[in-house]
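User: Can you fold this complex?
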Amino acid sequence: MGVPVRIHVNGALHQHDVEPRVLLVEYLRDVCGLTGTHVGCESSLCGACTVLIDGQAVKSCTIFAVQAEGRAVTTIEGLAQEGRLHPVQEAFWERHALQCGYCTPGMIMTAVQLLKDHPQPTRAEIAHGLKGNLCRCTGYTHIIDAVEHAAGSRQGAA
Amino acid sequence: MSTTTGEKIGYVGRAMKRVEDPRLVKGIATYVDDLRLPGMLHAVFVRSPHAHARVKRIRTDAARAAGGVVGVFTGAEVNAQCGTIPCASSFPDLKSPKHTVLAGDRAYFVGHPVAVVVAATPYAAADAAELVDVDYEPLPVVTDPEKALEAGSPLTHPDLGTNAAFTWNLTGGDIDAAFAKADRVIRQRMYHQRLTPMPIEPRGCVASYQPGEGTLTLWTSTQIPHLIRTLLPGMIGIAENKLRVVAPEVGGGFGAKLNLYAEEALCSHLAMRLGAPVKWIEGRRENAAATIHGRDQVGDYEVAVSKDGRILGLRNRTIADLGSYLQLLTPAIPTLTGLVVTGAYKIPAVRMDVVGVYTNKMSTDAYRGAGRPEATYLIERLVDLVAAELGLDPVEVRRRNFPAPEEFPFNTATGLTFDSGNYEGALRKAQQLARWDELVARRTSRRRAGALFGIGVSTYVEICAMGPSKAMAAGGWEWGCVRIEISGKVTVITGVTPHGQGQETTFAQIVADRLGVPIEDIVVLHGDTSVAHYGRDTYGSRGTAVCGSAIVMCVDRILEKARRLAAALLDARPEQVEFADGAFAVKGSGGKRLGWTELAGEAYIAKNLPRGFEPGLEASAFFEPENFTFPFGTHICAVEVNRDTGDVTIVQYVAVDDCGNQINPLLVEGQVQGGIAHSIGQALFERTVYDEHGQLLTGEFMDYPMPRAEDIPDYVLGSTVTPSPVNPLGVKGVGEAGTIGATPAIANAVMDALRPLGVTHLDLPLAPEKLWRAIRQGHKE
Amino acid sequence: MSTAPFNYTRPKTLDEALALLTAHGGNAKLLAGGHSLIPAMKLRLAQPKMLLDITRLEALRRIEERDGRLVIGALATHAEIAANRTVASRCPLLAEVAASIGDLQVRNRGTIGGSIVHADPAADWPAAILALDAELEIAGRMRRRMEAAGDFFMDIFETSVEPDEILCEIRVPVPAGPGAYVKTAQKASGFALCGVAAVVDAKARRVRVAVTGVAAVPYRATGVEEALAGKPLTAETIAAAARHAAADITPLGDIHASAEYRAHLAEVNTTLALQRAAAR
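Assistant: Here's the predicted assembly.
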């Protein structure tokens, strides 16, 4: 049984009737066709499904789509503006902060909020801020490098 | 070899960012779960909650009647049509249970699939799966591989009559003489825990049958699309040339996806049977229970030494817990441990006995390192125990047993030939980077202050670039293809299947330099058997060494052909033509240069070709490695252990790895860092736990601890470069080195920290409670 | 892995939520942050027929000081509490506990009320609630009642909140004395193997110490409190008192930590928490 849901996704309004049990991540992937947000677990521990709701990083595998009614959701696909990578995306590329790439969208979305809250984080603050995101490939060092790099480049740009 | 761009600085050797990254950081890459085909159905598996049970009856009527359900299938309905899951290893006397895609009348492990529901949506399939009613009769469970060998033990597979799948032994040198003349024999029992690989993307597949063509396409999250194309046809009754296997973007493998799994075979069968695409996406709990595990070896190890610390012989009996079935390489892992058990040392005599044992658990198989982490851990621990027993410096004991650089190629007692090495060089460099004397002084002062401070060293060697076909079950060669397109752009096709290793970049670097073209003009394709016709795929740190070499052969062939064409077009003899900066010209003429665009145009339009000249500018090649490669290095770790809690803090970490020539040092660094992280997990907290009833207690991320960003120390990483003589690139491989070299360094450091308390050995993982107990015990004594 | 089907509604007021809760009997569940409920629903361990999404009841989200009490709405998220200025100045212990929960994303979504009512024995909040002598306001259709923290936690996953009631507020007397929270996390889940909250009431020359993760129900370490009553807080008195941190309880044991180790951590973390609180 569908419930009408209106969600702003990456700036565009999406209106659908959605079964209440559809998770936000499923809504984004299956209804909106935005498959950049990934699922790595069912217990909200891996962070691969991280998106922003009203600017706050959340795990979209642990939210029903109906709960996001009226909210603004930003996914990895919505970060790059006018074809230009977001500074965090750029930094992940620059610092080889990804290998298989599966955790990467969630990692980047978390880093975006992290840098919003702490524009000049220490390495320890970065590591702490990324606690909710598992990566099995990189060993994290290059990810921390990348977030540090993004902070630096944003400062340089400011 | 062939013409190259010579001394000019090219792409190879540069720390370059990756070609594959933009699609990944934008979230627009296509993983298997991102595929949506018209009319696609969804499969959900019903799995055994028991470790061992008779499947008495399965009632599927309610599930069949549920909304959206297309079909519900049990073993009785599909096993006869699906053949059995293959194992590539064969020993004389290997006892192998029939491994059907669904359980037959017995379920052998928690997570064993007993039925599958196919429905229009994943929700409907999940709902209906709840309605499948399976009547189980629990049977006695085998969980302890040692007890499993005792007379009267329950049997994992009663029809085999034993729990022992195989016994295997390896002897080299005169082991009895070695122990007879030893000044000292050091013995230690060691258990190498079971681990779960846990790639962040679980497994999954989509199978689609095209009845008109009679062809089946299987997209699957795998490391081995080509091996699947070899193995699957016989199982499901389709011709090899009617099967296309595609590994799309793959979200991590670590060996877990180096297998042909029941779900892949069954979804393929069902797609043909139902005439609709069938998709299955593994949940994390399924992944923990029904995707292969790694390690799980226990053994009693003995080393014979002279009083000056020279190792004369090594012998042991290892019991390997295979789990309930043989997956693709299950028996080959503990035997690989046996082959490299002598580590980086000249050990003249070896005897290794391995018993593979069936238990009611998920199969063990290749998990990152696959047999070598076990070997490296045990030999590196043993060297430290030898040093402690003899009162020698563990670093000095290592030095005394190294083969010298001039002794390479070095033959081991286990029958391997190490291609090249300078173990002392890597050790020396690591000690420099660690500021060894300061580090030792710091240990002294920290210990004086009451701290539990330890330093651990591991000087490892491993085996990569798998491998010479005579040593591999299904061919160890690799295939590549390089094509200069008519536009002058270059397409490289590889038979390996990178899933994070970055070969779209490294292979482009290699080809760009050799053809003298900008890297932007190169596209590297992989992972689709209809594009990359042949391949043996990605595992065993083989991609760059073996396929990179095939690609070099292709480039050489193209250069040779292009030279002949250029000569004809320039009215010269081929030997008068030189190649530089991507163009051919008559030597010393300063005249006309023919670049790839001109040559490709001529080669394909084919109006001016010399008589008998074959059109086109494409070459493919199979590279057959003459030997494995043997990367090596030294890892140094310093830790402090909290006396009150047993918590371990890594206070310093230095790694010097020698993987031969480096195509892209940035990617080498990434592989090393990622590998060390696996080691940190393995050394300090990861373990897969089954209880005595065979219930999996680490069945999800809630219970299986993996390293997170805060667990990672700052590293000092360095390298030495000892090129391999066995391939044209001089590369060795680096995908597993960190996982092989680091665990023993960390373990040795923790053990060193506890040495003042009289603790000599603890098994992995060195988790806080275990250390706390040892510390408390140490204080009592 | 999908949940069983259910109906969903978003009551506009607390009264409406209470009415629906009563109307649906045991078949309805409240949905707040969802970080305990949704994972259980995915495993189909929980299969409510109706979810009442109360996350938008702004009245239950406020954080304010009222009549000598810091009042935290049950729907305040961990992140909101960690970042709130009033909390930081009037009861920093709450901010410290909030910041120690889960991870950034979980803190953005999970709520204090949801966590407390779920009563996971390894949750962080109960230690703080107990050590701060908080009171909990619980609303039913007919009445609102106050419950002392000490009477709130009944058993594993069981509190004194009835199925037709809603936890509305957590009230903490302020200014709270200096406090500290020391947690040893379960490595995989981040939950507490042992979390100890300590509060020093300098005027009364008393401490309050509460422990989560160690027993089936979070508890006040009364043995520790009594041993320190009226005494100066020195390294020696604290260490001696901390030995009682797991007295009179039955510690939990599992693959992550044995009962014995949990009890030991209770002592270690009690010592640290008291030392830190005393130094603040």
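Chain B touches chain C through 25 residues (CB under 8 Å). Residues 1-7 of chain B have pLDDT under 50 and may be disordered.
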